[in-house]
Design a protein that fits this description.
about 325 residues, mainly alpha, 15 helices
């Protein structure tokens, strides 16, 4: 593997600030981001990436490739929680297995954004329509995870899901709603809207991403100790499953004929895990699951693995296969 790709990714300023946040916790600094701000940063990033994706989708249109990418995204969002659930059942109970499987079937928008930043740094182009794939991969895993719980619960009468609430949480939670809404606004306003909002959505973007990743570093370092209860099984899962999922994503990207940039973003979507939308849904619908397991595995292991090693690793494999 080309070490220059890893170095290039690590030396990306927002990623370095992620490390700074982790170091701050390890050396017991009193550094912290006031609690309302990380939520604001998250909302801003969703607006920016969704709006840009809508504008780019106007340019590209719904071509055959775009439709195939969207179908592949939905397929992976449904398939990943199914096979990871049965793998996790080797060591974990039904509820924790379902919650973690749903977490890994969904996606991390910030990992996607970091991968886009990496591609821009390397001057590799990608389609804005990948944001549509991002938006569509967030919710299906929640539905599949809850179906797995319902089908696997021995006494069905003791457990009744409010499917209206489940669907509401899956498709109308704040991150999905804002991302899809921003995408639609980008579609409606096109280039004119991009020119109007460019100072907000473009010039401020990396500054806000830097603050957000600094906070993620602080949170990730604090969460690592929560994984001690499961030993090496969940830590190994949180590293190896993203690689496996990315491999399937790369194979599908090659089959569809995606560009290298699109293939990387699709692989990253397949490899990432949700630490915002899915945990919020699981806390409400599967209270028996331990949040420290599914949040910590996604945020303290998979997220840093992907932004440090995963993104350059996936691009390296793509470059080999796209020759």
């Amino acid at each position: 593997m080309d070490l220059n790709l890893i170095v290039s990714n690590i030396l990306n300023p927002p990623v370095l600030f992620f490390f700074l946040g982790m170091v701050a916790v390890l050396v017991k600094s009193d550094l912290e981001i006031p609690s309302p701000l990380p939520k604001l940063f998250s909302l801003y990033l969703l607006i920016s990436i969704g709006f840009k994706g809508g504008v780019e989708l106007v340019k590209s249109g719904l071509s055959r490739e775009v439709i195939l990418i969207i179908l592949a995204a939905i397929f992976m969002a449904c398939a990943v929680p199914i096979y990871t659930f049965f793998l996790l059942r080797i060591k974990l109970d039904l509820y924790n297995a379902a919650a973690i499987a749903a977490t890994y079937g969904s996606i991390s928008a910030v990992t996607f954004i970091t991968a886009g930043s990496f591609l821009q740094q390397l001057d590799i182009s990608y389609g804005g329509y990948m944001v549509a794939a991002l938006a569509l991969m967030e919710s299906p895993a929640i539905i599949v995870g809850l179906i797995l719980v319902k089908l696997s619960t021995s006494d069905q009468s003791d457990r009744e899901f409010s499917w209206s609430e489940v669907l509401r949480e899956a498709f109308l939670n704040s991150s999905v709603f804002l991302l899809v809404g921003s995408l639609l606004i980008g579609l409606l306003t096109g280039e004119h809207g991009w020119e109007v909002l460019s100072p907000f959505t473009q010039q401020m973007f990396y500054g806000v991403l830097t603050f957000f990743l600094l906070d993620m570093g602080l949170v990730a370092a604090k969460r690592i100790k929560d994984l001690q209860a499961t030993g090496f099984f969940l830590i190994g899962f949180a590293i190896l499953i993203p690689i496996f999922n990315a491999g399937i994503g790369i194979a599908l990207a090659k089959l569809i004929g995606m560009s290298q940039g699109d293939a990387l973003l699709f692989a990253v979507l397949c490899a990432s895990a949700s630490y915002i939308a899915v945990p919020a849904a699981m806390r409400m619908t599967v209270p028996e699951a331990n949040p420290s397991l599914y949040i910590s595995s996604a945020l303290a292991v998979t997220f840093p693995f992907n932004i440090i090693v995963g993104i350059p690793l996936y691009l390296y494999v793509i470059k080999l296969l796209w020759i």
